Amino acid sequence: MSSEDEKEVKGMPVPSKKLGGLSNKIRAVSKVMDELQRDLMQERWDLVEEYPNQLRSYVPVFTAYTDSAFPTDIPTDKGLRVALRYEVGRFFASLERFRQATNRKAIDEAYIAYSDMSLHFDRYLRVGGLYTFYDDNVTLEPYYAGNENSLVYADPKKDPALVRDLIVLIQGPEKGKTGIVIGLYMDGSDACAVKLDRTKGIREIRVVPRSWAAKRLGEQDPDDVFLLPRSG
């Protein structure tokens, strides 16, 4: 989607038209995050250690988009700029934790930091009007009422999903959606971060109770990040 072809997405904030390609530059971070997920899950530390500097190079792009997308003094634009700056701050704070975990090769801490980076970047896309779609379904649970057998999964109490496991959400408003576990929180919340499968180019991030994320059974295609070719 070029800057000239930016389309208003129902239900999402509408950024200024005068962005000069900044939208595509921000969306390009999604591919970097996918490549980082691939290399981290394959524990390619030699490659992973390069990502913090690469992602930090986007600081001016985030700053420019935040100031340009919602530039007026009306309360809604001011509020959106505050929200975007908050998410950028949390993203780069998580990136620093990721860098430190990477230096120690602390894989579980790196997964958590990566999950937080993913979550705050996802929120930046949403608040910044950068989603290419808007899902206005309030809940998918009614679609599966009485059809529980259509979801084939392991009992999350007996065989809980771990990082890298492909899962299906079995409870909550997005019941039936599929994705991959990218982090397990060790703060007593018993929550996990899930990267949902791609929809119109976007992979949404959810933090849910581990009891909601059940390992899918049977033969599965790999998460699509593992199909990305490595350059060089």
Your description of this structure?
There is one protein chain. The chain has seven helices and five strands, in the order αααααααβββββ. The radius of gyration is 18 Å and the shape is globular. Strands 4-3-2-1-5 form a five-stranded antiparallel sheet. The two termini are 27 Å apart. 41% of the residues lie in helices and 11% in strands. A hairpin with an 8-residue loop joins strand 3 and strand 4. The chain is an alpha+beta fold.
Write the layout of secondary structure elements.
Elements: H1 22-41, H2 45-48, H3 51-56, H4 59-69, H5 75-104, H6 107-127, H7 141-144, E1 166-169, E2 178-184, E3 191-196, E4 205-209, E5 213-215
Antiparallel strand pairs: 1-2, 1-5, 2-3, 3-4
Helix pairs in contact: 1-4, 1-6, 4-5, 5-6
What is the global morphology?
globular
Q: What is the mean predicted local confidence, pLDDT?
A: 88
Q: What's the SSE pattern?
A: HHHHHHHEEEEE
Give unreliable regions as ranges.
1-7
Oligomeric grouping of the chains: single chain
Question: What would you report as the Rg, rounded to the nearest angstrom?
Answer: 18 Å
Q: How would you classify the helix and strand content by structural class?
A: alpha+beta
Instruction: Tell how many strands the DSSP assignment holds.
Output: 5
Q: Given the structure, what is the number of helices?
A: 7
| Major β-sheet profile | 5 strands, antiparallel
Strand order of the largest sheet: 4-3-2-1-5
The rounded distance between the terminal residues' Cα atoms is 27 Å
